Amino acid sequence: FHSGQRLDRAVPALSRFRRRFLALSLTKTYLYKFLKDGMVHSDPHFGNILIDDDGHLVLLDYGATCFLSEKIRHKSMLLFWGLLRRDISLVYSSLASLGVIQGHVDPMAIENEIYDFLEDYLHRPLGQLSLPDMLKDMVSQSQIWGIKIPKPLLYQVKALSMLEGTLHTLDPNI
């Protein structure tokens, strides 16, 4: 049991500075847990985050959690980096190394599909890109491409999507 106030109920009383601090703290916590420990807590909505009496964040509900090996974390980060850089070859090689590409698939055909997919994102400034939106779009395209998205990547997509919403509510400029 942890005492504290749900984040969504605490936000209206928080200063803009405190909200930004909490958004950055939550981001650092998630990056640390993901990169160092390999833990993906994929349900970071306001109801699962408390602010305790000392002003610290408390994460609740670890029912939708998975742990990733260092190898999978590295490959996932390369995929995310490829998406953010809009690097088709890196996205393809990351998907292949994650074992996502099934059967006998023409690499050039998949790279062309990835290019078509990323084309909408190619001309947006980095500040207007949403990695969770890109990942969700990629997951929705996966059947068309004939690829199978592994469960750990789906957990990461869910976690990043929910985290992004929580962070934007705390600090719309983050």
Please describe what this structure looks like.
With 174 residues, this protein is mainly α. It is 59% helix and 8% strand. The protein has helices spanning 7-10, 16-37, 70-85, 88-97, 107-122, 131-145, 151-170; strands spanning 5-6, 39-41, 49-51, 57-59, 65-67. Strands 1-3-4 form a three-stranded antiparallel sheet. α2 runs antiparallel to α7, α4 (88-97) packs across α5 and α5 (107-122) runs antiparallel to α6 (131-145). The longest helix has 22 residues, at 16-37. It is elongated, with a radius of gyration of 18 Å.
List the helices and strands and how they pair.
Layout (H helix, E strand, L loop, with lengths): L4 E2 H4 L5 H22 L1 E3 L7 E3 L5 E3 L5 E3 L2 H16 L2 H10 L9 H16 L8 H15 L5 H20 L4
Antiparallel strand pairs: 1-3, 2-5, 3-4
Helix pairs in contact: 2-7, 3-4, 4-5, 5-6, 6-7
Quick take:
The chain has 174 residues and is mostly helical.
Supply the helix-strand structural class: mainly alpha
Can you write the helix and strand succession as a string?
A: EHHEEEEHHHHH
Helix content: 55-70%
Strand neighbour order, sheet with most strands: 1-3-4
Low-pLDDT runs of 5+ residues are: none
- Residue fraction in strands: 5-15%
Q: Main β-sheet, in a few words?
A: 3 strands, antiparallel
In round numbers, the mean pLDDT is 81
Distance between the termini: 31 Å
List keywords for this structure.
7 helices; 5 strands; mainly alpha; 59% helix
